[in-house]
Design brief:
Two copies of one chain form a homodimer. By secondary structure, the first copy, chain A, is α/β, with parallel strands linked by helices. Chain A contains 15 helices and eleven strands. Chain A is globular and about 60 Å long.
Chain lengths: 360, 360
């Protein structure tokens, strides 16, 4: 694979992750390529289905670039789904219209668990092709983020068979048969590391591990069943490619109580949700990691002046980044499909404007 | 109203809340009168509907006592719903079969918000009658807990019109029209204080404020829009009745990051979910408050030996209560309707047995 890409014109995001000085606070938004954009909905309609969109590199490239054409965001993120990996393991992913993801073959008994194998990466070639095509299309505009679900978060869907509000089946297995849960998580950790490395080979310039459901775990259990396996993933990651550092971000939603331990996971940056006080978090992590976050996405339902005021609170809470610290602005969760696109304009202007002013 | 009740035979729960020495760690379970019990389902079937059950003091008494007849729990809790208060405000509560609560008249605009009034307590007489009847029927067996939703948690349902997974409408109003949100919360705080005081007058021996959705708020916003109003409620509470102290418990699910501030709310005890490390929490709150919690309810899907081991972890994490400290064992959330009733037997035996041994 040819890795001759155009040089980066805007490396602010990568610099912030690596805790190097920047002229302003870079930002991107989780789920920035999504249903709140009419152009996304148009491409989605052409593709026919969510998986039709995600598995076609042309479409995936198109929707990945759309938010960048509208807003001066500082990073692009591969358009895909965290459940591509379990799908490639043979669990049979589908998305019913208006509902969440479903697996036809969830892991519900010992036999199914012990039969679980790492996927053949060839079956995920559509993802790597999308990464390469997006990177080429970006042409150095901003860096491209690759991503995966965390071993635990994938396990939640793999055992529950879909979304859950109580995690009864997956936690039931965890408490009743911890041996089976560790087996799943071991397989997932190896698969996730290989999957992220293949994205890096294909052109991803940073990677992020989404531990969406780590915060549902009990203290002690989180460390053993989620954080431990993210650490294993991080240990297995390529941290450099083509002479460039590849920063890694971990994000446990609801993981604020475990920030000290997450900051020791080996990642370069830690994502935070809106429940965390950024000033305290910065003090807690010191020079170990950069921080990413943490505006409540519901702020985007307010007027531009309120958005500006809330952005200012976040930026002031982190404060002016000093030597060895870094802040990437983001929401604390994916942007809502009901967000007015104008709100994002106000958000981006506020983040860039206020943070430039704070540094001068 | 006659307040001549039989003396308490088991005051372990009240003593632990007031940080007085106890022979063992008392326990009760959130939602202990519930669908996991076949006898509850039988009474529910007789009553015809959830509200039929909650509004009839005979039925409410019957189901409140059921778990105590099965397990040697250390407290009873009024069987009711947190949404009785907004229902009495005229929002029109209903429960569709198999779905959550619904309000026919949610607060969606300025006009609806400004028309909101504290309810006439007479329309909640069925709740106070149930309290008195339960207290009489208990005949001093264990103390009776009264409860209410927190002002913020009630507001979530009142604005959303039912459950929500993103709180888009209520947070949208909070960020866009904080004046309207404060108006709702002011009315709610007064209503909740009056409602809890009427429960105390009717016979409740402790009260608990359920802030189920406080943990959905951003840092800073939680303090201003949830904790502040719980403090107002607590300020307005009767703390003694008939010469007995009436302890007050606050529980913000997902509020672990704000424990210091919650411990300063004026409550006697703070409920904790399973994400919190009890040893650290105990150190943090010192002698200010007792702690209540915090087993993951999903532990009850494991075998008795695993339940025993997980209970031991919780009790060991808190440690032997010393002078001026107190621990009430509970789950970190309501018990699941799918819980095998035998698991609760194992739980109660483990909590009582291990905690007695730890004190000797």
């Amino acid at each position: 694979m040819s890795n001759v890409y155009a040089p980066l014109k805007n490396d602010t995001f990568l610099r912030a992750l690596l805790r190097q000085p920047t002229d302003y606070t870079p930002l991107w938004l989780m789920r920035q390529a999504g249903r709140y954009l009419p152009e996304y909905r148009a491409t989605r309609a052409k593709a026919g289905s969510f998986m039709g969109l995600a598995t076609n590199p042309d479409y995936a490239t198109e929707v990945t670039i759309q938010p960048l054409d509208r807003y001066p965001l500082d990073a692009a993120i591969l358009f895909s789904d965290i459940l591509t990996v379990p799908d490639a393991m043979g669990l049979g992913l589908s998305f019913a219209e208006g509902e969440g993801p479903r697996f036809a073959h969830p892991l519900r008994d010992e036999k199914a668990v012990l039969a679980l194998r790492e996927p053949d990466l060839a079956s995920l070639q559509y993802v790597f092709d999308a990464v390469t095509q997006i990177r080429k299309t970006l042409n150095g505009r901003v860096p491209l983020i690759g991503f995966s679900g965390s071993p635990w978060t994938l396990a939640c869907y793999m055992v529950e068979g879909g979304g859950s509000d109580d995690f009864r089946l997956v936690k039931g297995m965890l408490y009743d048969r911890p041996d089976l849960m560790h087996h799943i998580l071991n397989v997932n950790a190896k698969a996730v590391a290989a999957y992220l490395n293949a994205q890096i080979d294909a052109g991803a310039q940073a990677v992020m591990i989404f531990d969406t459901w780590g915060g549902a775990l009990a203290d002690g259990v989180y460390q053993a069943f989620s954080l431990h396996y993210m650490r294993e993933v991080i240990k297995g990651l390529k941290r450099e490619h083509d002479g460039q550092k590849i920063p890694c971000i971990v994000f446990t939603k609801g993981g604020g109580l475990w920030l000290d331990e997450i900051a020791d996971s080996g990642a370069d940056a830690v994502g935070l949700d809106w429940t965390v006080n950024l000033a305290k978090a910065r003090q807690q992590v010191g020079h170990k990691v950069a921080l990413q976050g943490n505006l409540d996405p519901n702020v985007l339902f307010a007027k531009p002046e309120q958005i500006h005021a809330e952005v200012e609170k976040v930026l002031t809470s982190f404060g002016k980044p000093g030597p060895g610290t870094g802040h990437v602005f983001n929401l604390g969760h994916g942007i809502s499909q009901f967000t007015p696109p104008e709100s994002v304009t106000a958000l981006v202007e506020a983040v860039h404007g206020i943070s430039r002013r704070m540094r001068s």
